[in-house]
Design a protein that fits this description.
Layout: H1 7-23, H2 29-38, H3 43-67, H4 73-91, H5 97-115, H6 131-148, H7 153-162, H8 168-192, H9 200-219, H10 226-245
Helix pairs in contact: 1-2, 1-9, 2-3, 2-5, 2-10, 3-8, 3-9, 4-6, 4-8, 5-10, 6-8, 7-8
Length: 246
């Protein structure tokens, strides 16, 4: 894995990505996958590595948001009941590399829009999520999370905000734990299907945790990283383009 050309640039950008994602309550899998695609990582190493990174970075992010009092347990459970088993199921399925890249490119569009704050509007009127809505949304996102190797927060957060099920900080806190449980379930599904983690993955975890810890801390407070998010959106767009046309 670490024999990839220009790996030092990858290692330099990795903690920046984890910082930005963690600051909004995300683990960063879509960003890690985009980076790995840009640096031509082997597809079979991308999914488990991204989910492993997610576990640590989303866990740190959740800790800070929970500590700040933003976690809505009822909202989280309405999604997690179906997302966990379906993330495990998705993790056991191995996609053709070409199909995998195309689906990942589509999901990266959500990440780009989130970084551009297209889904960043809050609404003062909060609505109660219906049980069937939470089960449906959680199940669908959970399945694709395990299938592609993401935690699903990049999709869940916009949905929470668009449907007024919570404010920005609540969405971040719920998404952080949602990402963690889906990543754990998806990674377990992959490991049971015979996929293994490379030793170098744990070095990437240590590097990503630097940015993730700082992002979770500052994101749970008041901080504006919009200029950096524009840069990340640009990087994601390049990765998206490469995945579609490479």
């Amino acid at each position: 894995m670490l024999q990839t050309e220009n790996i030092y640039i990858f290692l330099l950008v990795l903690p920046i990505v984890s910082f930005l994602y963690s600051s909004v309550g995300h683990g960063g899998a879509s960003g890690y996958l985009a980076l790995m695609a840009l640096f031509s990582f082997a597809p079979e190493t991308m999914k488990p590595t991204a989910l492993l990174l997610n576990l640590f970075v989303a866990g740190i992010s959740f800790y800070y948001y929970y500590k700040s009092g933003y976690f809505n347990k009822k909202l989280f459970l309405s999604f997690a009941i179906t997302s966990i088993p379906l993330a495990f199921l998705g993790g056991t399925i191995e996609l053709d590399a070409t199909i995998y890249k195309k689906i990942l490119a589509i999901l990266l569009v959500f990440a780009i829009l989130k970084m551009l704050n297209v889904f960043g509007k809050e609404n003062g009127s909060i609505k109660q999520v219906k049980l069937w809505q939470g089960l449906l949304v959680g199940g669908v996102i959970g399945f694709f999370s395990g299938l592609i190797g993401i935690g699903g927060g990049i999709i869940l957060t916009p949905i929470i905000l668009l449907l007024h099920w919570g404010n920005m900080k609540e969405a971040a806190a719920v998404s952080a734990l949602f990402i963690w449980v889906n990543s754990a379930a998806g990674l377990t599904g992959q490991l049971t299907s015979g996929i293994t983690l490379e030793k170098e993955s744990f070095l990437l975890v240590a590097i990503a945790l630097i940015g993730g810890t700082l992002g979770g801390y500052f994101g749970s407070k008041k901080i504006n990283n919009q200029n950096l998010r524009y840069i990340l959106a640009f990087v994601l767009a390049i990765a998206c383009f490469k995945l579609i046309f490479a």
